[in-house]
Amino acid sequence: MSKLGGGPEFDLIRSFLADAPPLHSSVRVGPGDDCTIIGNLAISTDASVEGVHFRRDWLDAFAIGWRASAAALSDLAAVAAEPIGVMVSLALPEPDRADFARNVMRGVAECVKSFGGSLLGGDTTSAPVLVIDVAVVGRVVDPVLRNGARAGDEIWVTGRLGGAAAAISCLQNNDSPNAAALERYATPRPRTREALWLKARVEVHAMIDLSDGLFGDVSHIAAASGCAIEIDSELLPVDRQSGATYEHAVAGGDDYELCFAAAPGAIEALREEFERSFGIEVTRIGAVRGGEGVHERRADGSVAPVTLRGYQHFRD
Amino acid sequence: MSKLGGGPEFDLIRSFLADAPPLHSSVRVGPGDDCTIIGNLAISTDASVEGVHFRRDWLDAFAIGWRASAAALSDLAAVAAEPIGVMVSLALPEPDRADFARNVMRGVAECVKSFGGSLLGGDTTSAPVLVIDVAVVGRVVDPVLRNGARAGDEIWVTGRLGGAAAAISCLQNNDSPNAAALERYATPRPRTREALWLKARVEVHAMIDLSDGLFGDVSHIAAASGCAIEIDSELLPVDRQSGATYEHAVAGGDDYELCFAAAPGAIEALREEFERSFGIEVTRIGAVRGGEGVHERRADGSVAPVTLRGYQHFRD
Lengths: 316, 316
What we know:
Oligomer: homodimer
Number of helices of chain A: 9
Distance between the termini of chain A: 34 Å
Strand content of chain A: 25-35%
Number of strands of chain A: 13
Structural class of chain A: alpha+beta
Mean pLDDT of chain A: 92
Radius of gyration of chain A: 19 Å
Helix content of chain A: 25-40%
């Protein structure tokens, strides 16, 4: 498996894998990347739990379905796979098992329709709280993994960061997020087309989607690639329009932007065309160095290792 | 999609699919069968929820993991696919996120090791109750679907029926199930090898695994194949050793045996070898006729349509 970054979540996953039987010969990429890859198919699952990833007074049924699907599709984008579809396990309280469930699944269907793929199957059952687990399947011949970054590469991100975290901060304080922030949280847009576009034009050495927070996610690229990553705090595209702070941008998750490593100059040559094609920015935020871990270059030129902390999901 | 049998669960799934975008061209078998089939891969998901599919005073952590994996692997067996592995989404209360979670995953790993495949990935998150959703991936070149039964075929089942339901009945009444019944419920054995063995020797026209109850599950074969299925009540292999009743055998689920249609005489010729190879029976229980729905032939020779009712999961 690819080496994962630090943190208790990943210690737990490492302990699970210690007990697992060896991989089947058809498995090209096993646990530890954004997707498992078998033959030309990329597969991933992503579970969202009421009270952990969302609250019903924050998101309506449609957004719950959209957001869960977008999170799963984002894992496909991270390896530059083309979506084929999703399978949805929907567990929810008995009284919700008609209109509410149907609206959740409309959100799933709309999201999948927007980014490619269909509804491939699923399962519905009752449960005390709503849990939606989306398994996503895509086609990929030559996947971009987390382990290909090399010293000298540049680190880039799509879009702007921290908007979803800014929305969650507001909601937790019983404030109303602005429309831009709420959209970032409720109906995030997986960067499916952006990933395929980049992959078709340039050799992307390593890529991940930003679901747990920039510093935590980037640490997986560093660990898998056996290198250090330096993020330049001055360069970060903080999503100010959504009210995001620097803290939201580096530690908040749920933006589902892409972060990737590429050779010096390779992306700059495409930047304008990318931004014209997709209406979002692509920004160089750092570089790959020898060593290990994630380091932050501050405005005063000092560089310090980052104490990893991903975005902590709120608790009820 | 394959036509599904009746019932509110399936009405809900039909409503979800009505909103879904068209299938990607690589999808050979879409929703409505035991697995979705894309290229040579069969994929399915199966969610188990605490308080719905199991209770913690009934099953220990190991059995919770085993049972959830067995249920998912059983979907692969139903299309005669060879397991490649499982991806597990595990949502559970915060205090359980160390030893308990690890024991659940040991159950997953042991089950997968016993029937082929590995742990391909997954996701862990907190939740108010334990939810384990297992996505399973297998290899299949020539799948057995639900839609190939034809008038004149015989209907067969592997093993004996009703043991898991007998265990659940006891547990619900605060009685202790006998060891045989408890084993059937807690650590069911997906009929992976049996399915591959049969498929290699005889043309199996249609197959399903028995997860919701014989009558309900058989109704899906009837609906998908556009035929009627007659079950002979005298022939049913009721799992008396587990204390199962006829009612448990026809309406109880969770046995994860296989039910399939084959040409007259085809299975009888292999029956002894099958039973010697696997140590379980294979029993002819009925026949495929023209018409629709499921019909029950009683001891007195009368035949009556079955009012469909799958196994109703208990509620807290």
